[in-house]
Amino acid sequence: MKRVIGKYTLSPLVIDDKERLFLLRSIDSPFFERKRAKNLEDIEAFIENIHREMNCRRTLYLAIRIDNNLIGTLCLWNIQIENQCGEICFELLEAFRGNSIIQKVVPEFLNICFIKYPPLNKIIARCHKNNFSSQKVLWKCNFKCNNRGKKGELEYEYKRS
């Protein structure tokens, strides 16, 4: 699966992405918690796990690329077919933030999600209450804040039209 949106390409992770993915996943973020990658072996294991999860249809994880180079990722996870919803998250390498890239690729990613998982009617996004950039992206991509986030976060939802 490969989708081109202007100068950006969405496509699955490949092992050659490991160095750039390490840059993305080895930094601390004040906006979310996750296990940081300590080395390239952690990233290789992560890529293998993502491939397994995608093969089992438990996640959809795509790289955002410019000229075949990974600059960020989009993920649909926490897929609950019985509740007709899933959860989206996204991130970019710092050098590419603030250029409306996520805003440009999220609508196509949502289309892919609804095609790959037809029972889904709603996609949730959560972000830290102080992550104003992500809040702005979600608002511009027609997500609505539903005020059901956990402490310190906001929850947004996008409903299939």
Concise account of the structure shown:
This protein is of the alpha+beta class. It is 30% helix and 32% strand. The mean pLDDT is 93.
CATH superfamily: Gcn5-related N-acetyltransferase (GNAT)
Count of individual beta strands? 8
Question: Which structural class best describes the helix and strand composition?
Answer: alpha+beta
Largest sheet: 8 strands, mixed
Order of H and E elements: EEHHEEEHEHEE
- Spans of at least 5 consecutive residues with low confidence: none
* Average pLDDT reading: 93
How are the strands of the biggest sheet laid out side by side? Answer: 1-2-3-4-5-6-8-7
Would you give an account of this structure?
By secondary structure, the protein is of the alpha+beta class. The chain has a single domain, classed as 3-Layer(aba) Sandwich (Aminopeptidase). It has four helices and eight strands. The protein has an eight-stranded mixed beta sheet, sandwiched between helices. The longest helix is centred in the N-terminal third of the chain and has 16 residues. It is globular and about 40 Å long. The mean pLDDT is 93.
Question: Layout of helices and strands, plus pairs?
Answer:
Layout: E1 3-5, E2 8-12, H1 18-25, H2 40-55, E3 60-66, E4 69-80, E5 85-92, H3 101-116, E6 122-128, H4 132-140, E7 144-145, E8 153-159
Parallel strand pairs: 5-6
Antiparallel strand pairs: 1-2, 2-3, 3-4, 4-5, 6-8, 7-8
State the main characteristics.
alpha+beta, Aminopeptidase, eight-stranded mixed sheet, 4 helices, 30% helix
